[in-house]
Amino acid sequence: AAGRNMIVFPEGTRSVTGRLLPFRDIAFRLARAADVPVVPVVLHSDLPFMAKRPGSIFPPRTINFTLRFLEPVRPQEEDALAELVGRAERAIAAQLRELDAGTVWEERP
User: Fold this and answer.
1) Which label site among 32, 37, 42, 54 has the fewest CB atoms less than 10 Å from its CB?
2) Which residues touch 108 (CB under 8 Å, ≥6 apart)?
3) Residue 109, pLDDT above cutoff 60
């Protein structure tokens, strides 16, 4: 609301598998209260990185990263909070499916 940006990791923690976890709603509650859009950001790696598993923090080879800023998700008054969260989560999941092609993630559920 004050014109500043804020970064929130909506999953709240790292996953064991390195895959997307369900989103918590705090970032979306803040966006709704400030009447500002949420800008989903995808940071994709071609190998697991920073997962809660051995070898993930210091991987055995160079990792390639892709960073994508997606279309803003704007809170709508008629939206339930879960719908706002779901729209951002679906946008990120769709980008991850696209980026997974040709990486180790393609074979992992």
Assistant:
1) 54
2) 17, 19
3) no
